[in-house]
Amino acid sequence: KKNGVPVRGATSRRYTVPKKAGIASKDVSNDYTLPSVQQSDEGSYSCLVTNSAGNAESNAATLTVNDPPVITTHPVSQTKDPGQPVTFTVEATGTAPLSYQWKKDGSNISGATSISYNMASVGQSDEGSYSCLVTNSAGNAESNAATLTVNDPPVITTHPVSQTKDPGQPVTFTVEATG
Question: What's the whole-model pTM score?
């Protein structure tokens, strides 16, 4: 029975092996086997044994199927100025314990093994895609990648040039910058 309801097709015959020369008599029965358990198989299982004298039901055994991780909140892409802090966070469900491994551009980040990944002060070298692999005994799930963009500070590529002009003449100063 599963949760007190008979399981269709889960019956077996029980019989006694006759005593033969030096072999003791013993009871033999089939087991109930689920070859590949699924979440829908979770429940309480018991066995009702009957014969001509009556019946007896076993104690219930509970089947719990571990839940693989499922990402419920993915990290969010962010744009920061150099020197600002950034935090990426992931949320997941699944059978505990869950383990976390943050990645940058597909490579593991050493020591980044918690639900959040923090950088106190970002620089240009921190730009990239950040994701988190969440694992447990039942499997793993990887978050969507979040992009970190670090604004480029302005850099003067062409400075204004000093000029000498007569009164009444126009003057133009030009500067070029990137960033």
Answer: 0.71
